[in-house]
Design brief:
The chain has helices at 3-11, 21-24, 170-175, 187-190, 204-212, 247-261; strands at 28-36, 40-48, 51-57, 68-77, 86-88, 96-112, 117-123, 131-137, 140-145, 179-181, 191-193, 217-221, 224-228, 234-236, 245-246. It is of the alpha+beta class. The strands form four sheets. The chain has an eight-stranded antiparallel β-barrel with strand order 1-2-3-4-9-8-7-6. Strands 10-11 form a two-stranded antiparallel sheet. A two-stranded antiparallel sheet has the order 12-13. Strand 14 and strand 15 form a beta hairpin. The protein is elongated, with a radius of gyration of 25 Å. It starts with a helix and ends with a helix. The protein binds manganese (II) ion. Manganese (II) ion is lined by residues 35, 37, 41, 43, 56, 94. Manganese (II) ion binds next to strand 2.
């Protein structure tokens, strides 16, 4: 694996908890969500003291040190929202589609929200190097990239429209979302899965039960009763000194691959 790709993969991690500060120097997680509500904007969020401190950045963050982006300080979001990608129903707060445009951890080098100036270094797949977020007046802030080795002139967020979670664009997520976010519900209940829950693979006990069945019987699997005759019928004759494949083996194989295969069918 090329070094650059390795570094990207290593540095990008959506973890349930931030790594201990003494190990990485990381202050917490950051996420940027591309959100098409009434207007397109990017939500730039920093995990600080158990919430996601948030700014709405209409044109998105940039690596171009010559460009200042307007950023509007909006209400804190719950940590549950950190990796949300999907659709917020129309008519609810923030109604529209959302992708995880970038995510990772960040270091706070200087300042804080209360002082109206933060110097941060995100370790994302897209955002790298040092940024400054500075309050100008009220809720209006500016987001800038410093002149450093990560700066890229002319870099524009809209040229990099894919989710770092799924590789999908907002259009693709909107057309076939995995999750809904119900803004009208408490954070712990707001995320609604739209896909059937994954089927767990057969347990060792279930596989042992299949072996114990005689030539015919009923195998209890995936919450159903599968009645089968001629378990030991040879379906594929022995070849190259290997054992023949029986009906029992084929059923075992189908059950083992089903949890992986079914979501694609
Ligand atoms: Mn938003």
């Amino acid at each position: 694996m090329p070094l650059e790709e390795y570094r990207r993969k290593r540095d990008f991690a959506i973890t349930p908890e931030p790594a201990p500060a003494e190990l990485t120097g990381a202050t917490g997680r950051f996420v940027v969500q591309r959100h098409r509500a009434r207007r397109l904007h990017y939500d730039f969020r920093l995990e600080i003291e158990g919430v996601l401190v948030s700014w709405a950045v209409p044109k998105g963050p940039t690596l171009d040190p010559g460009v200042r982006r307007a950023a509007f300080h909006v209400e804190d979001h719950p940590l549950e929202y950190y990796d949300f990608e999907g659709v917020i129903p129309k008519g609810e707060y923030g109604g529209g589609d959302v992708i995880v445009w970038d995510a990772g951890t960040y270091d706070l080098h200087k300042g804080g929200v209360d002082s109206g100036e933060l110097h941060i270094e995100p370790f994302g797949q897209k955002l790298r190097g040092r940024f400054v977020i500075v309050r100008t007046r009220g809720d209006e802030w500016l987001l800038m990239h410093k002149h450093d080795e990560w700066a890229v002139e002319g870099w524009d967020a809209e040229d990099h429209p894919q989710s770092v979670l799924s590789g999908r664009t907002n259009d693709e997520v909107k057309a076939d979302p995995d999750r809904l976010w119900r803004s009208d519900l408490p954070a712990a209940e707001a995320s609604v899965e739209l896909r059937p829950p994954p089927v767990p693979p057969p347990s060792d006990d279930e596989l042992a039960a299949l072996d114990e069945l005689r030539s015919a019987g009923t195998w209890e699997i995936f919450g159903r009763s599968l009645r089968v005759t001629n378990f030991d019928k040879v379906l594929f004759p022995a070849r190259d000194g290997e054992k023949p494949v029986t009906k029992r083996e084929l059923i075992r194989y189908a059950a083992c691959v089903a949890p992986i295969l079914l979501p694609y069918l």
